[in-house]
Write a structure and sequence with these properties.
With 217 residues, this protein is an alpha+beta fold. It has 5 helices and 11 strands, in the order αββααββββββββααβ.
């Protein structure tokens, strides 16, 4: 299977075909519910981010058909590892769809050493954990989120409780921000280009629409 640049190719040639049909008016074809657990060290630095993504039934069934090599209508451990390895390789160039910023500036994260894949109630679940490349102190406004820069996959946090902080310092305030699309466009009008409106997959501006957890410390 070939992985196409700027497209989330968890599994399928079918998905790639669909992606090729929407060059200008890009909209999601894959949907996932997310959970993020922010782990905090006693010294108020970020220990790790734990991600869980639960994909929609249609996409999950397509993944099943693609990776079920022995045609037993389920994915065994080896097949699940194949799924996880494919996702791991596909997302590397997109920083694993993560947003991590301090006072608006991007924070570099270490690549997760591996991803885990599972099937539960006929849905594909992806789990991974990663760490900041350098010690990340909870100071100022630290934000976390998930987004697909290609607009191909809609990953969102259905409930605010799915953005969790373990051992959050008492000096920090927590807020979940769900940007209104019209407001986000208006606020960022000066930085948007014709390329964004004609082909959002060629930009990194889709993060302005992403739900994010903000910790102000």
């Amino acid at each position: 299977m070939q992985l196409k640049k700027h497209t989330l190719t968890l599994a399928t040639t079918v998905a790639l075909t669909l992606a090729a049909t929407v060059p200008a008016r890009v909209h999601p074809h894959v949907f996932a519910e997310a959970r993020l657990d922010v782990q905090v060290n006693p010294d108020q630095t970020i220990k790790s981010l734990r991600h869980l993504w639960r994909f929609d039934d249609l996409f999950s069934s397509t993944v099943l058909m693609e990776f079920d090599k022995n045609s037993d209508l389920k994915l065994d451990d080896a097949e699940l590892k194949d799924v996880a390895d494919t996702v791991h390789a596909s997302l590397a160039e997109f920083n694993y769809f993560q947003i991590v910023t301090v006072d608006g500036k991007d924070v570099k994260m270490k690549a997760p050493p591996q991803l885990m894949a599972n099937f539960e109630n006929d849905q594909l679940i992806i789990l991974f954990e990663d760490q900041p490349d350098q010690p990340l102190k909870l100071k100022g406004k630290v934000a976390f989120g998930v987004y697909d820069p290609t607009f191909y996959t809609a990953i969102d946090f259905i409930d605010d409780a799915n953005l969790n902080v373990d051992h959050m310092p008492a000096s920090c305030q927590r807020a979940v921000v769900r940007p209104d699309p019209d407001t986000a466009l208006a606020q960022n009008q000066s930085t948007l280009t014709d390329a964004f409106f004609n082909d959002p997959t060629g930009t990194d501006m889709s993060k302005i629409f992403a739900t994010r957890l903000e910790l102000t410390c």
